[in-house]
Write a structure and sequence with these properties.
Order of helices and strands: EEEHEHEEEHHHEHEHHEHEHEE
Helix content: 25-40%
Number of domains: 2
Distance between the termini: 35 Å
Radius of gyration: 19 Å
């Protein structure tokens, strides 16, 4: 991709950060991101809520506060009741209201498949910007939500997911990352990213690459949604999971000692996933306690290490 040289760009696309950041004043910057996707649940209202939470998450992951939104809609001209779109939009607006974000408008197109999401604009204090390039050796790595939404929603599409497992996944996807991000800003956190389409290994590898570090993850500590391992063993793997494995396996090392069903979890594409937090080692215990005191089921899953300490060409190693 050609590079631009525009004054004011603080964070661009070079390091696969969650959002772009543009300087407004010596202290304040603009944060911008966009995301949309097809339905992953049957209920249009819930789908709209999840799409909004997912879009907002990128701003939180950058250390920012979302302020405005523009909707992006693709909707068929035939075969579906128009009130379905109304329910999707209502779900999105309710989630934006929960986040205190103003919907200013949007754009819609005719499409054979429903697609929905938002372009989000927020602000961030420059001192609080969290970039993929900020992680340091010694960081303790914390994850705020369990994994497995991709496997569960794939099982749902194939008519094989239990309502209990689906509801648990929905609850995770509906949860905003706003409170977790606020708490992180009270501690020494060097980098953050949210776990979405590239899965845990993919997004962690992006931080490792940008920060010139390596990462160790203990698979036994990774939190997993109930049912996800069952659907993993049954082979309910989305195409994105296979793509993630094909691409990121080149720069990560997942030994055969890690069970195959857990390996799927590590590559599973997430929607509205949790924050992956790279904490200063001396702050990690207090940060974990603060997150858990706020009802956030945060778990320490690994550490950042000097790049030379891992196997050649492996940015990430799972034990």
């Amino acid at each position: 991709m050609p590079r631009q040289h525009v004054p004011g760009v603080l964070v661009g696309y070079e390091n696969s950060d969650d959002a772009g950041v543009f300087e407004l004043t010596p202290d304040i910057a603009l944060v911008q991101t966009v995301d949309y996707f097809p339905p992953i649940v049957d209920d249009p209202y819930i789908y709209g809520q999840i799409a909004a939470a997912n879009s907002l998450s990128d701003v939180y992951a950058m250390g920012g506060v979302p302020k405005t939104a523009l909707s992006i809609v693709g909707f068929p001209t035939a075969g579906l009741e128009f009130n379905i779109l109304g329910d999707i939009m209502r779900g999105g607006i309710d989630k934006l209201n929960e986040a205190g974000v103003a919907l200013l408008g949007g754009h819609s197109v005719r499409d054979d498949e429903i697609k929905f999401g938002y372009a989000i604009t927020g602000i961030v204090e420059k001192k609080n910007i969290k970039q993929n390039s900020g992680a340091r050796p010694g960081n303790r790595i914390i994850l705020t939500k369990p994994l497995g939404t991709g496997l569960i929603t794939t099982a749902l599409k194939r008519g094989k997911a239990s309502s209990e497992h689906v509801q648990a996944a929905v609850n995770v996807m509906l949860e905003l990352n706003s409170r977790a991000a606020e708490i992180c800003l009270q501690f020494r956190v060097d980098a953050m990213t949210d776990i979405t389409g590239f899965g845990l290994i993919g997004h962690a590898s992006e931080v490792a690459k940008a920060s010139h570090i390596s990462i160790r993850i203990d698979h036994r500590k990774v939190p997993i949604l109930r049912g996800a391992l069952e659907y993993s063993r049954a082979g309910f793997c989305a195409g994105g999971l296979t793509s993630n494995r094909d691409f990121f396996a080149k720069i990560s090392h997942v030994p055969d000692s890690v069970p195959a069903d857990v390996q799927n979890i590590l590559f599973d594409p997430q929607t509205s996933g949790g924050l992956l937090i790279f904490s200063h080692p001396e702050d990690a215990d207090k940060l974990l306690a603060s997150l858990r005191a706020s009802g956030i089921p945060a778990v320490e899953i690994g550490e950042a290490i000097p790049q030379a300490d891992t196997q050649a060409d492996h940015l990430l190693t799972v034990s």
